[in-house]
## 1
Amino acid sequence: MTMTSQRDEFHNLDDLTQGLARELAPGVTTRIFPGEHAMLSVVTIAPGAMGTLHDHPEEQWGVLLEGSAVRIQGGEEIEVRKGDFWRTPGGVPHTMRAGPEGCRVLDIFAPPREAYRKAGKGFG
């Protein structure tokens, strides 16, 4: 049995060298941290930028870490501020539009999104 150091299981939100990098849309980038049963994605959205409306079967939770934004989910537009968090059930169309200062979001997927297990472009 091969043992890996538990240090490999520790990460930092501000270390831009960590995670799998993906450009989701113009002005929308993420760093992905896949696990066995869940996946974290640290998304940075430039001021005024917006992702593409999309859906996927995985459940998604989001936390607004910095800035302000409008969460577009299931046909509704909901303003969110630092500290707000939300759940997006699988199959519900959603995206995010950053406020004037941009924003950073922590997304948690369960189960992990297979399309996000590698670096690349797009929402999957």
## 2
Amino acid sequence: MNIHSVVPVSLTGGTPIVPEWTPGEASEGWRETEYRSFASADGRLFGGGWEGEPGTLRLDPYPYDEICVMISGRVALVDTEGGRREFGAGEVFFVPRGFRGVWETLEPSKKFFFAYQGA
């Protein structure tokens, strides 16, 4: 490998991906876009930038381990027992694969993300 294998990660660089959710998973008006800057050869490790508008997304279960680095805005995670944590600009958090609950985007938000799907 050489310097050409080193990839910059940015908020809007990379391949834009707009996930499609089944009815009932996302609230009306939920909008998000991932900008995948990189993916490992096997596709299990990937990351880039993300932006989302206010709304909620039911996670049952969360599909991968993810590290989130909030750049702007505010989000909350609410588990199935009602536990709640909010995160804003400058905060970093980890969401484990298998988490069950709701992702709530409280205001327009941007983050960097690094995800691992595992075997």
## 3
Amino acid sequence: MPVWIEVAVSLFLLFGSLFALVGAIGLFRLPDFFTRLHGPTKATTLGVGAIVLGSMIFFSSRGDGLSLHELLIMVFLFITAPVSAHMLAKAAMQQRLPRVDRTRGEPWK
């Protein structure tokens, strides 16, 4: 395998792991549901997308042809993550979950 492919795969894996870690820390550290929702939907989605892209490059470079399974995983991930986050946020607004004062917006008034 050429060195530039190894470097590209390594960079995507490191980039994705860093974003997944930041998303997990955000999920743990942020104060209320509405701010915690950003961790897994923004940073972790980008992190998992980068990891899957690194996987796609790796398995495509092994000579078996273009690996489209990972591309389908990424499309599914990028379509379902915002939809599920929107549904969770709407349910939380309907339940009038408590929020900290720093969280802006009060759509249920």
